[in-house]
Amino acid sequence: MDLFYSEAHKAFRQEVRDFIAANLPDDMRQRLRAGGFASKADTELWQRALNRRGWGAPAWPKAFGGAGWDAAEQQIFADECAAAPAPPPHIFNITMLGPVIIHFGSDAQREYFLPKLLNADIQVCQGFSEPGSGSDLASLKTAAVREGDAYVVNGQKIWTSQAHYSDWVFCLVRTDPNAVKKQAGISFLLIDLKTPGVTVRPIISIDGRHSLNEVFFDNVRVPAANLVGEENKGWDYAKFLLGHERAYIAGIGRNKERVACAKALLAKLAGEGHPASTLAAYRGQIALIEADLHALEVTQFRMHGGHADMKLSPMLKARGSEIFQAITDVICRMTAPASLRADTGSLTKSYLYSRAVSIFGGSTEVQKNILSATVLDLS
C-alpha cells in the first residue's frame, strides 16, 4: 500500500512503530500474537497509554480529544497496532459510542462521556441484539416508557459482548410501539449497568471464553437526560454507528498480521524440511488470500478517503470476515496437531472464534442482502 502513502505518512508509520515498541508490554504482545484476546486490564492500560499520547481516538476531531487523523494515518495506525500486535482503541468506547455522542449527543453528554471514553475510565458495551431480533434488528421489543423525567425500561438483550465488566450499555429501545414503520419507533438510550433492575448473565461461547452475556431490564429507571438525540430517531443513529462498526470489522490490520504469521510459519516449516509439494499448496493459498486482502484494503482506503459511498460498508464487513476465516484456517492446517497442544491451544480457540466473525456485527448473508438492495437495487 505504499502506493497511497506520502513521505510524511511513511515517517508517521515509523513514529507509530517506535511508540508501540516503547510502550506495549511484552507479555501482552506475546499473548495476542499467540491468538489470545486482550483482557479488561489490557484494554485499560493500552487505551490510557494511547490517550496520554493524544492517540486515544484516531478518527475523532481534535476539538473532542481525538487525533483528527486522515484516512491514511488511521489505516497506518490500525496496521501497526495489529502487526505488533497491540489492542486497537476500545471499539465500543471509541469506534461506536464516541462518534454517536459527538454527532448527535447533547453538550452535557459530550462533556461527561467523551473524556471518560477516551481514557477508559468507563467501559461501555452495545445493547442491540435481542432473542429473535438479531439480523432483523428493527423488530426489537425492549420497551422504554416515559414517566416524568425518566424512562422505565423492560426487556432483554443478548450476545452483549463485555457486559459483565462494562459500566454502561448503549441500547436501542422501543419508545413508540405504534409507529407505522418499526424503525421509526426506536430510540438510543444510555443505561448505567449499576442501575437497580439490571441483571447480567454469562454466555460461554464455543471457544470456552466468557465474553458474551444476556442482559435483562426489569423496570429499570433511566434519566431522560440519557436519551441521545431525539426520541424515535434511534434507528438513524444506529445506522451511523453500524457503518463505523462494519468498517472496523473488515479487520485489515488484523488480517495482515495473520498473513504475516502464516508466512513466518511457512518459512519455519520449510526450514524443518517439510515436503516442498505440501508447502507449495499452502504458499498458493496464502498468496490468494493476500491478493484478496490487498483489494479489500484499497477499497477501504477509497471509502475512508471520501471517494465511495458508505453504503458499501457491509461489503467491507463481509469480505473481511471471509478473509479472516480463510487465513485462520490455513494457519491451523499448517500447525496440524500442534494447534491442539496445551501450550499452543490458543490457535484452536482462535479458529473457533473465527467462525463467529461472519455472524456478529451483522451476518454475511444479511450484509449481502443489504448490498443487493442498496447498491444493486435488487430488492
TrEMBL record:
The enzyme's E.C. designation: 1.3.99.-
InterPro entries (UniProt xref): Acyl-CoA_Oxase/DH_mid-dom, Acyl-CoA_Oxase/DH_mid-dom_sf, AcylCo_DH-like_C, AcylCo_DH/oxidase_C, AcylCoA_DH/ox_N, AcylCoA_DH/ox_N_sf, AcylCoA_DH/oxidase_NM_dom_sf, Mycobact_Acyl-CoA_DH
Top EC category: oxidoreductase
UniProt keyword Flavoprotein, yes or no: yes
Alphabetized GO MF terms: flavin adenine dinucleotide binding; oxidoreductase activity, acting on the CH-CH group of donors
Annotated ranges, domain Acyl-CoA dehydrogenase/oxidase C-terminal: 232-375
Keyword terms: FAD, Flavoprotein, Oxidoreductase
GO cellular component, one term: plasma membrane
Cofactors required: FAD
Domain Acyl-CoA dehydrogenase/oxidase N-terminal: 6-119
Domain Acyl-CoA oxidase/dehydrogenase middle: 125-220
Protein family membership: Belongs to the acyl-CoA dehydrogenase family.
The name this protein goes by in its record: Acyl-CoA dehydrogenase FadE17
Organism: Cupriavidus yeoncheonensis
